[in-house]
UniProtKB/TrEMBL annotation:
Keywords for the protein's UniProt record, in alphabetical order: Cell adhesion, Cell junction, Repeat
Gene Ontology biological-process annotations: cell-cell adhesion; desmosome organization; heart development; intermediate filament bundle assembly; protein localization to plasma membrane
Organism of derivation: Serilophus lunatus (silver-breasted broadbill)
Superkingdom assignment: Eukaryota
Name the record gives this protein: PKP2 protein
Annotated localization: Cell junction
Keyword Repeat: yes
Residues covered by region (Disordered): 71-109
InterPro entries given in the database record: ARM-like, ARM-type_fold, Armadillo, Plakophilin/d_Catenin
Family: Belongs to the beta-catenin family.
UniProt GO cellular component terms: adherens junction; cytoplasm; intercalated disc; nucleus; plasma membrane
Compositionally biased spans, kind Basic and acidic residues: 94-107
Length: 296
């Protein structure tokens, strides 16, 4: 667990170690099957996998990048799209949201397991069943890592979490966790998921009222609370930017007074939360059909 947080070279060596990732996954599967999701060894295994999934898209071996690129090159009307790793273009990002990964292997080995649907479902199971904060946080954090990029892999993982594995209810419950770091990581994961336009209606329907409910009534005090509030505002921004329906949902959940209060933070006008709330307010005002409702 300590070695897995030693930086890019350490992660690379551990990902390449024959049988290591497979053994960690095997152990966690056994712990879940035996109804023992709270033991220390399971926590350690999940924390290692969390660390090994960090910057995975960027650090993947060229052979994997090439395999995904070849798949994309055969996709109609996509001839001019550049390679999928390292790019941050908005047009590329929009196209990649609809680009599938190469067909998933039924028996993944090594690094392939890190983004496989089997492990995604394991993380969601641990989020739902474990009562150990570090295990919950590491499971959420691994999913956050896997959905953090702009290539086809993060969007495929996001679709698996939301649509194939029905992961939103488990993630939503973590928004109400008493442990601040667990809540913060759950919000960061939802922020990543909400970037995928094809999933926004599902996410808004399932978790938008909960996101509003955990927003503070005024400017948050601690750094972690400030970061969490900022992430919630940016998630709401993603969900409402192109959807008047979702903006109305935010309004009916009594989100507007909270967002206004956070944006008007007098103690530090340049805080992350204050800026994020101001960006969200500016975006909400672009829905002209809601102006009368806002004024009321």
């Amino acid at each position: 667990r300590n070695m897995s947080s030693a930086g890019p070279e350490g992660r690379k060596k551990m990902r390449e170690c024959d049988g290591l990732i497979d053994s960690l996954v095997y152990y966690i599967q056994g712990a879940i099957a035996d109804h023992e999701p709270n033991d220390k060894a399971t926590e350690n295994c999940v924390c290692i996998l969390h660390n090994l999934s960090y910057q995975l898209e960027i650090e993947l071996p060229e052979s994997y990048a090439q395999g995904i690129y070849m798949q994309r090159r055969n996709t109609p009307n996509n001839d001019k799209t550049p390679g999928c790793f390292g790019t941050r273009s908005r047009k590329v990002k929009e196209k990649q949201q609809d680009t599938p990964l190469p067909e998933e292997k039924s028996n993944p080995k090594g690094v392939e397991s890190l983004w496989h649907s089997t492990l995604i479902r394991i993380y969601l199971s641990l989020i739902a069943k474990s009562t150990r904060n570090y295990t919950q946080e590491a499971s959420l954090g691994a999913l956050q890592n896997l959905t953090a990029g702009t290539g086809p892999m993060p969007f495929a993982v996001a679709r698996t979490v939301v649509q194939k594995a029905n992961g939103l209810p488990s993630i939503r419950s973590m928004l109400h966790a008493s442990h601040p770091a667990v809540k913060k990581t759950a919000v960061s994961l939802l922020r990543n998921l909400s970037r995928n336009t094809s999933l926004q209606s599902d996410i808004a329907r399932e978790v938008l009222p909960d996101l509003v409910s955990v927003l503070p009534e005024s400017a948050p005090g601690s750094d972690i609370a400030c970061e969490t509030a900022a992430s919630i505002c940016y998630t709401l921004y993603n969900l409402t930017q192109s959807s008047s329906h979702n903006a109305r949902l935010l309004l009916s959940a009594d989100g507007l007074p909270k967002i206004i209060a956070i944006s008007m933070n007098d103690s530090n006008m340049f805080s992350k939360a204050s800026r994020a709330a101001s960006v969200l307010l500016y975006s909400l005002w672009s829905h002209t059909d809601l102006h009368n409702a806002y004024k009321k």
